[in-house]
Write a structure and sequence with these properties.
The chain is an alpha+beta fold and about 240 residues long. The chain contains three helices and twelve strands; from the N terminus they run βββαβββββββαββα. It folds into two domains: about 160 residues, NAC domain (Metal Binding Protein, Guanine Nucleotide Exchange Factor, Chain A, Beta Complex); about 50 residues. The radius of gyration is 36 Å and the shape is elongated. It holds the Pfam family NAM.
Length: about 240
Amino acid sequence: MERLNLMRNGVLRLPPGFRFHPTDEELVVQYLKRKVLSCPLPASIIPEVDVCKSDPWDLPGDSDQERYFFSTREVKYPNGNRSNRATGSGYWKATGLDKQIVSSRTHQIVGMKKTLVFYRGKPPKGARTDWIMHEYRLITAEKPAQENWVLCRIFLKRRSSSKNEEEAAATENGGAAPVFYDFMAKERADLNLLPANSSSGSSGITEISNRNESDDHEESSSCNSFIASLRRNKCP
């Protein structure tokens, strides 16, 4: 059967209404394993790219979507197994433990999935970014003749909308949260620093109310004294 070629100038071009969204098992069994064993692929949809020769935003394809690449692992040291993942502007750093990819048909481990994060700058003082890479490697008895192929899925992690809204509000206020004051209180207090169950406004109103009640009582006492004085001085 003729293979379907959906790559044009190194960029994935799917027909309208189609989306490439394979599972981890499909990536390992249907694509990576076939690539390693030089077998026909279901579709020519994943290009061969050395992902460490370019920064993630410069790789082929739409950077707003997930991108998939066949790549070969470059050994960092001649006598070691550690991969060299340095790029022009930074490096890829592994995070967490590798995940086992288990076949749903045979229930055997067919591959491993490593998660990496891209850092700008030089290790170990690089600045973490939101670029993520999932690197899939094959576990099989058959070994590739010369090349050590891996399959890479690269995407830009999106921040939550609530966090973006908080950052936008802080930016509009010059980088600081708005400050609210209680002008009814005796001493002006920052409401943002008060406990949630406190009621600073009510305390200020209560204080003013008590003061007014005291004044009314004194005024009433003075009036009664004046009337009593008039009665005593009234002629017979």
